[in-house]
């Protein structure tokens, strides 16, 4: 009887899965840390931080109206002080809606050392 079990493939998958779990925990930690910093700095604004990975993310304003440009720029400045570069072409301070969808004001950002496109 031939053994078709590939120990190398099994170990590779196991290590990759462990790395994904570590990245997910780190990503969640980054989200919580950024969100708590935003909450301390801007207690009257309801903000939600979400990370796409370890190097980029989005801050969303949880309100169904436009954000004043001076407040929007204050949050951008704060995010840039945290070591991120804001993609102003993808960030928007206006709230918009369609029949079944909402687009909330948002700020897109990346780590400063990994930004090539903006």
Short description:
By secondary structure, the chain is of the alpha+beta class. It has one domain (7-114).
Kindly describe this structure.
The chain contains 2 helices and 6 strands. It is α+β, with helices and mostly antiparallel strands. The protein has one domain (7-114). A 4-stranded antiparallel beta sheet has the order 1-2-6-3. A hairpin with a 4-residue loop joins strand 4 (96-97) and strand 5 (102-103). The radius of gyration is 19 Å and the shape is elongated. Mean pLDDT is 82; it is low at 114-118.
Please give the largest β-sheet: 4 strands, antiparallel
What would you call the shape? Answer: elongated
Mean pLDDT: 82
Q: Tell me what portion of residues adopts beta-strand conformation.
A: 25-35%
Number of H- or I-type helical stretches: 2
Q: Total domains, how many?
A: 1
Specify Rg, calculated over alpha carbons: 19 Å
Q: How many strand units?
A: 6
Distance between the termini: 58 Å
Unreliable stretches: 114-118
Report the structural category.
alpha+beta
As laid out across the biggest beta sheet, the strand order is 1-2-6-3
What's the order of the H and E elements?
A: HEEHEEEE
Helix residue percentage:
40-55%
List its salient traits.
disordered C terminus; 118 residues; 25% strand; 4-stranded antiparallel beta sheet
Question: What's the helix and strand layout?
Answer:
Layout: H1 7-41, E1 47-51, E2 56-61, H2 69-81, E3 84-92, E4 96-97, E5 102-103, E6 106-111
Antiparallel strand pairs: 1-2, 2-6, 3-6, 4-5
